[in-house]
């Protein structure tokens, strides 16, 4: 009999769902999973299997996941929260009315869950500062990565920069547009993601090639025909796309606020954005990157080997 029920998105191509799917081959014989995003079916499945398990892992924040966590706690199950995002930080950049309600809801989740597992070492340190009252139950497992990109670089004439996150304020791609607009060379800027707050303004730049909906494989193809991946996020618990971009042969320029810095090697000041809103810094570093490609940046595969991370998660659950 399996001892653990894993609650999380197993179908979509979001960062959390990709991580969940990466873990599945190594945990499928040891945990129960549910392969539907229909809320009613997920709840029924959970209520059947919760009877037989001792542990529940909640992977990702959602109203349904919070409800299921409360049920698990009432039934005296060991509870763990695999924390992919941080609502308290992320709502700062969203045009929504219920910010305080969502922050309070996340706080209640963190307060009531037994163990909080952050998806990077950098994020865990930040969370301990933000919620020091929970520091004794905050740990981390760097995201498990299983990227096998068997794609060749695609030839292209114009220097191409790429970013994901579309018009999401948190990703701050509009600032990248403002900097590129003053760059020394003619540049193509590929932006992928939903329009949201800044999408229309981003699309108005003539050098922008905008894609709202691409499959994961199509995103990787776009990375293979790009020179530089920029992630100028105000906040990012990990940033899986950075590793994908490296595997596709891109150079990178990333914010100092990104969790994936925990696993990157051979990175220097010219690869990191210190101030997300400083157009002069962005412009200087984009111009530098056009002339100096850093071929040495890599990531520590031992720190994020998906099999090892899955087994590490299993060990924590069974302690």
Question: How would you sum up this structure, described in words?
Answer:
There is one protein chain. With 319 residues, this protein is an alpha/beta fold. It has two domains: 4-140, Glycogen Phosphorylase B (Rossmann fold); 159-301, Glycogen Phosphorylase B (Rossmann fold, 3-Layer(aba) Sandwich), CATH 3.40.50.2000. 39% of the residues lie in helices and 18% in strands. The protein contains 13 helices and 14 strands. It has helices spanning 15-27, 39-49, 63-74, 87-90, 99-112, 121-130, 173-180, 199-203, 216-224, 240-247, 279-291, 301-304, 306-318; strands at residues 4-8, 31-32, 55-59, 78-83, 115-118, 138-140, 159-164, 187-192, 208-211, 228-231, 251-255, 264-265, 272-273, 298-299. The strands form three sheets. A six-stranded parallel β-sheet has the order 2-1-3-4-5-6, with helices on both faces. A six-stranded parallel β-sheet has the order 9-8-7-10-11-13, with helices on both faces. Helix 1 (15-27) packs across helix 13 (306-318) and helix 7 (173-180) crosses helix 11 (279-291).
What labels describe this entry?
single chain, 319 residues, alpha/beta, Rossmann fold, 2 domains, six-stranded parallel sheet, 18% strand
């Amino acid at each position: 009999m399996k001892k653990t029920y894993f609650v999380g998105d197993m179908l979509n191509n979001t960062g959390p769902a990709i991580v969940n799917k990466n873990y599945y081959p190594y945990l499928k014989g040891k945990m129960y999973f549910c392969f539907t995003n229909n809320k009613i079916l997920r709840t029924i499945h959970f209520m059947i299997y919760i009877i037989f398990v001792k542990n529940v892992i909640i992977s990702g924040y959602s109203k349904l996941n919070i409800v299921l966590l409360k049920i698990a706690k009432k039934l005296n199950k060991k509870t763990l929260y695999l924390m992919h995002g941080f609502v308290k930080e992320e709502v700062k950049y969203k045009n929504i009315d219920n910010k305080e309600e969502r922050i309070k809801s996340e706080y209640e989740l963190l307060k009531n869950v037994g163990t909080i597992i952050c998806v990077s070492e950098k994020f865990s340190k930040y969370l301990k500062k933000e919620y020091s009252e929970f520091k004794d139950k905050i740990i981390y497992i760097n995201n498990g990565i299983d990227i096998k990109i068997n794609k060749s670089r695609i030839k292209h004439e114009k220097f191409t920069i790429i970013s994901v996150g579309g018009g999401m304020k948190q990703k701050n791609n509009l600032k990248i547009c403002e900097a590129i607009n003053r760059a020394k060379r003619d540049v193509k800027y590929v932006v992928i993601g939903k329009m949201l707050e800044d999408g229309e303004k981003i699309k108005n730049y003539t050098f922008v090639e905008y894609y709202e909906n691409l499959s994961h494989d199509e995103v990787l193809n776009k990375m293979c025909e790009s020179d530089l991946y920029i992630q100028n996020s105000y906040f990012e618990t990990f940033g899986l796309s950075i590793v994908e971009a490296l595997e596709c042969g891109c150079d990178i320029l990333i914010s100092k606020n990104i969790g994936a810095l925990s696993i990157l090697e051979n990175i220097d000041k010219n690869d990191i954005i210190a101030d997300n809103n400083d157009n002069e810094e962005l412009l200087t570093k984009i111009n530098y990157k056009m002339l100096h490609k850093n071929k040495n940046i890599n990531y520590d595969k031992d720190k994020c080997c998906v099999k090892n991370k899955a087994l590490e998660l299993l060990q924590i659950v069974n302690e």
